[in-house]
Amino acid sequence: MKANKFISAALALGMALTFTGCGSSDSSSSTASSDTASSGAASFTTAELAGKISIDGVKLKTPMTFADFGEGFTLDSYVQSGDDGSVIDIFNKDGIVCTLGYNCDKEEVNENRNIDYILFTPNDFNRGVVSIDGFTANDDVKLLEEKLGEPETDGIYFYETTDGGKLEVIEAAGKVISINFFYEKPDKQ
Question: What distance in Å separates the CA atoms of residue 121 and residue 14, rounded to the nearest whole number?
Fold first, then answer.
């Protein structure tokens, strides 16, 4: 389990270091025009997309804090920090579930702070823990298209919301290797 935790933390930190900016998310950053829905872009808001995602049975919402996960989850005692933010792992009874990301210094991370992004790297014991409208990392990515519509792709299946959120699903060799949900799109890809 310690190796899985280290690998997950390293991947999460690597992704966190690619983002810029520090501060809280503003879910009212922009509104897309109606013709983006016809070009393959998502036609839902960040709150609507969050409502389709659950982690070990807990539906996401906006805004959301670790405390909103409720009983059955624990927050790691170690916060990792980079130039652009901080990440911390959460666990359930089986082990690591996912990584929570915050656009702030590690000293500001606590169970009541709004989560800015969630990083999920599936492994043997938790492949089904994240569900997107019934789609999990156990399924073919084509099922995700059936659930959410045709994604935009650039080596990554991604869905941008009309108000600044983003869902990324990364697949390699027929397996989902990462599911990432951003309450606000990162400035860098």
Answer: 13
Total domains, the chain: 1
The range of the structural domain enclosing residue 13 comes to 2-182
Q: Does residue 187 lie within any of the structural domains?
A: no
* pTM of the predicted protein model: 0.78
CB contact at 8 A, 88 and 79? yes
Residues 82-141: pLDDT tens digits?
Answer: 888 999 999 999 999 999 999 999 999 999 999 999 999 999 889 999 999 999 999 998
